[in-house]
Amino acid sequence: MQVTMYSKENCSLCTKAEQVIEELSGEFPLVLNEIDIYKDDVLLEKYQIMIPVIEIDGTEVEYGIIHKEVIQEYLRKYLK
Q1: N- to C-terminal Cα separation, the chain
Q2: CA distance 30 to 24
Q3: Is the CB of residue 36 less than 8 Å from the CB of residue 8?
Q4: In the 8-state DSSP scheme, what is residue 55?
Q5: Residue 62 DSSP SS3
């Protein structure tokens, strides 16, 4: 399952979100693709104050403070 995380350098919330995804990858088949929004003007404009943004197979699941339980619940429903 493809997980895209929109982030930026030196972002403590992004680091915490990455840890959540790593923890969940033990339970779910996740592949993390991290994208720096500062390398794409369109993404920067779209996500500037929202990062980190977690997108799973094209669906934005959560942004800002990422909660493991929210992502976990989404994945459980998604995999049914």
Answers
A1: 13
A2: 8
A3: yes
A4: E
A5: strand
